[in-house]
Write the structure tokens for this entry.
Amino acid sequence: MTKIALIQFKADVDKHKNLKKITGYITKAAKRGAKLCAFPEFMMCYTPASQSAKELAKVAETITGEFVSSISKTAKQNLIQVIGTIYEKSPITNRVYDTSFLIDQRGKVVSKYRKVHLYDALGIKESKKLYPGSQISKPIKTTVGTIGMMICYDLRFPEMARTLASSGSEFLVVPSAWVKGEMKEEHWITVNRSRAIENGCYVIAPDQVGNIYCGRSLVVDPYGKILLDMKKKEGIGIVDVSLERIKQVRKKLPLLKNRRIDIYTNFKL
């Protein structure tokens, strides 16, 4: 069994305040024996509707900037892997990437993923401020297991989760900032459990709480059992995960093996 930590918190509009809180959580997670510490989407800062795209672009950094470098330093000091997110500068004026990154226990950024599905739905239009990524990132092997990286709204697109799982992912880690609304918490729980069941993998989904977000950070096991639901509380959740559990479930319920990819195609109408 391996311990992983989820962090659920309410991000401030000030990225420096958030960074101080983030590095503190990393240290606490390591002291509690976690090998991986996962943070929610938009942990860099909360972006209110009143903030312009130009103002957000000024806040954004590169992956080698102060924000990620400080987190890398803390990860190295505590010998812990960290998954977090930033607003990353993009080549498009007044648009930024919504980027997740994975830092290993040596403090090195070993993978990053730019959100490909922007949340232009249910009254929100992320494309007014964000710029979409152009590819899914290759699953990466870690000391915990092989991780596939997704972000929030990506959960509603099962093709992405399946691609990552069929490419070797044992864990889908999904930093999120799930907006409140009618049936939104029900959707959140349903899509997290569905992606886990369909692919026989763990789904690790740290979520923002407060502001316009619903919380309910989750860990779902490969058979769909909810191992952690952080409700509305800020703080750290610790869960034990097991590669053996993934093997057992995929052997009993071999969905990845039983796919008929030879006949899946769109009909011409």
About this structure: The two ends are 50 Å apart (CA to CA). Residues 15-31 form the longest helix (17 residues). The first strand starts at residue 2 and ends at 8.
